[in-house]
Amino acid sequence: MKTLRLSLLLSLIMTHAFGQHGWGDRTANYPDDAPRIPSIELNERGGNLKVIPVVVHVIHNYGEENISDAQVQSAIVQLNEAFSAANVNPNEIASSFRDIIADTEIEFRLAKLDPEGNCTNGITRTVSPLTNSATNATKDVIGWPRNMYLNIWVVNSLESSFQVNYAYWPGTEPSAAYDGILYRHSNFGTIGTSSGNISPAYVAGVYLNLLPVWGSNYLTCGDDNVADTPFTIGSQPNSCDTTQVTCGTLDNVQNIMDYSTCGLMFTEGQKARMHSTLASSVSERDNLWTPANLLATGTNDGFSNSCAPIADYHANRTELCEGNEVDFTDFSWNAEITDWSWTFEGGTPATSTDQHPTVTYSTPGIYDVSFTVTSAGGTDTRMFQDYILVKPYGNAVLGTISEGFEQESFPVNSSPELNWSTPEPAGYKWERTTDAFTSGDASSVVDLGSIPYGLTIDMISPPLDFSWVTTDNATVSFDVAYAEDGGQSSGNEKLRVLVSYNCGESWIQRYNKQGSALSTNGGTTVNGNFVPTSSEWRTESVTLGPIAAQEPYVLIRFEATSHTGSKIYLDNINIANGALGIAVEENDNALSVYPNPVLENSVLELTSGASGMVMMEVYDVRGKLLWGESKAVSVGLNRIPLAEMVGKLPSGVYFLQVNGAELNSTIKLVRE
User: Fold this and answer.
1) Residue 325 and residue 360 in contact, taking contact as beta carbons nearer than 8 Å
2) DSSP state, 307?
3) Which residues lie closer than 8 Å to 303 by C-beta, 6 or more apart?
4) CB-CB contact of 108 with 132 (8 Å)
5) Which residues pair with 318 in a beta bridge?
6) Backbone torsion region of residue 405, taken as left when φ is above 0, otherwise alpha when ψ lies between -120 and 50, otherwise beta
7) Do the domains 313-391 and 591-671 sit in the same CATH topology, yes or no?
8) For residue 617, is pLDDT > 70?
9) Which CATH number fits domain 313-391: 2.60.40.10, 3.20.20.10, 3.40.50.150, 3.30.310.260?
10) CATH code at 591-671
11) How far is CA 658 from CA 477, 547, 553, 646, in A?
12) What are the start-end ranges of the H helices in 85-197?
């Protein structure tokens, strides 16, 4: 009995970068441990076509992983080309193997009827954060009966970063619900987000019970239990040596089940093994291709349908200030859309027939959005009640504020102007807890161990009026507690503090720590529930700088990024402490630019306490570096012309940072 254990699998993959190939899940035994599937005759080319109905479940969070129908269809074409040998020029194959190139007589077809007999195009779309770091739990989101369909799940990323796909060999899956193939979107199909360089045929071969050509031990002479594939140790990755001999005979390096870069063919023996799998009740493969199932799934010859669409859309933001815009994106599916009809309560325009409209909301309030799409097969409407929250630009809190999470109603405050915002992607959020604190009786916590990989969880301050702050010394201080969990997530859990002066339209990072830098307990890993002691907290202070100074509507955002690790606690948040309402003229490192708004004759004046080189850098409001130059400065007042810099800037707001020669200062610039 051959068993491929996790340690061997990981060492092979990590050492040889084999992420492009599908393997059984880490808990699955090697396929020789599965029930044996009876053998059948090798040569079945005489019209023995087996059609396998396919459903592709696109699991997404409105990102690029929500691939197009066309990309899905390109992957099915790619599969069928490989399994029919349509992509093979026999002259390209080593002469020793030309006579056994197999048209496997297996065809994959997208289903046209779902398990209830409803019209489908064979592609489902489900919104879930489990698209990130996908595991079997992702398959629990949606799945169709495996005895009727080959389930394919397309996701943003897999749990192991080196994997791009995986499948179980028949009989090794932990449950029927997990049987099928999991693909990363960037390696599925030949267009869109995928380069097409990695064929989906290898992992489909695993699904149909094919072993790698070397059998159970890579780089050791082995056998895949197929008579016409020679013993081999396998090819090195990123290689294609068609003269390779490793076990006494010429290797079939152009076999799809090898690790070479030129996998083009299945053999007649592999075809027989796959047909044997389809004739077996193991994992219910024997029902997939039956005439009754083809009728039930709409994959029989000649079947056609025209489906009604399923309406879906997404807004780039649902909370905004009066006078701002919202971009709406159509994500409808299940049919080719011909007409769009939008209704925007409180918006301008109030209606639209554009596919992706932009709407301005000028009046504070809470508004509904309704959306109807039409295809040749019908219509569908989706309505979100109270979807858009428009806030008045004003009425922000003037002065400093403190938040110790003492009110049980947090984030709601007895003084409404002090309400915090805790968005809940997929139901996850920052919450008040009395388990640990540095002052009072409570703090705020986010349990990243229960939150899907890559998901960010925000806690946003009340709007703050900083029009009284004329210097850049306003700070945010807070107490934080965090311990690494010692698992795969170690070093990756992240906490950021960001500031916005334009009602959340853009955010600028002011604090970013993760892993050991964020840890507050001395670096000790904690497995399980982390509850900090009084000594396992640290106070942080973040300078907001010129970004917020003199702005009438400032938001502070605490953002935690999950790597499914530990908890992060926050307490004793103090905002704008230390801010002054008058300029500090005695600052030796002060910067000034005049005129500002800047023109090509603008000059930077800086006073330096030392001579040397300074680096001048200009960033936009999103933190993107736009321009940089080094200059020599001397002790005292320096005047630097800004014509070159100004000539490169379109209209907008920018930040000029000067570092070096004992300077570390930033000033806001406006280009009209």
Assistant:
1) yes
2) P
3) 112, 295
4) no
5) none
6) left
7) yes
8) yes
9) 2.60.40.10
10) 2.60.40.3080
11) 24, 15, 26, 16
12) 136-139
Residue 74's H or E segment, with its range, is helix 69-84
Which of 431, 506, 500 is closest to 464 using CA atoms? 500
DSSP assignments along 271-296, one per residue: HHHHHHHHTS-GGGGGGTTSHHHHHH
* Residue 350 C-beta-side C-alpha neighbours within 13 Å: 3
Spatial CA neighbour of 27 closest among 226, 172, 220, 236: 172
DSSP class of 363: S
Domain ranges for the chain: 6-211+276-297, 313-391, 397-577, 591-671
Q: Which two tokens stand for residue 539?
A: 């106070």
644 pLDDT tier (thresholds 50, 70, 90): confident
DSSP state of 439: S
Q: What is the DSSP string of 25-62?
A: -TTPPPGGGSPP-----S--TTT--EEEEEEEEEEESS
Cβ neighbors of 292 (< 8 A, separation 6 or more) are none
Q: How far apart are CA 369 and CA 329, in angstroms?
A: 12
CA distance 297 to 166: 25
What tokens does 396 get? 């922000």
How far apart are alpha carbons 209 and 274 in whole angstroms? 6
CATH number attached to the domain at 397-577: 2.60.120.200
- φ, ψ of residue 457 in degrees (nearest 5): -120, 125
**Identity (one letter) of the amino acid at 487?**
G
Distance from C-alpha of 517 to C-alpha of 493, rounded to nearest angstrom: 10
pTM here is 0.75
Which H helix or E strand runs over 106?
strand 106-110
Query: Taking phi first (over 0 means left), then psi (-120 to 50 degrees means alpha), and beta for anything else, what does residue 143 get?
Result: beta
Where residue 590 falls among pLDDT bands split at 50, 70, 90?
low
CA distance linking residue 477 with residue 542, whole number of Å: 6
> Structure tokens of 374?
């039409």
- The class level of CATH for 6-211+276-297 reads alpha beta
pLDDT of residue 382: 96
| Mean pLDDT along residues 118-146 | 94
The angle at the Cα of 353, spanning 352 to 359, to the nearest 5 degrees, equals: 30
The mean pLDDT of 584-594, rounded to a whole number, is 54
Q: What's the Cα-to-Cα distance from 63 to each of 59, 66, 121, 406, 424, rounded to whole Å?
A: 10, 6, 21, 37, 18
Comparing 523 with 311, the larger pLDDT belongs to: 311
Measured distance CA(111)–CA(120) in Å, rounded: 7
pLDDT at 672: 83
- Give tens-digit pLDDT for 217-272: 888 999 999 999 999 999 988 899 999 999 999 999 999 999 899 999 999 999 99
As to burial, measured by CB atoms within 10 angstroms (0-12 exposed, 13-18 middle, 19+ buried), residue 648 is: exposed
Residue listed under structure tokens 């099915």: 76
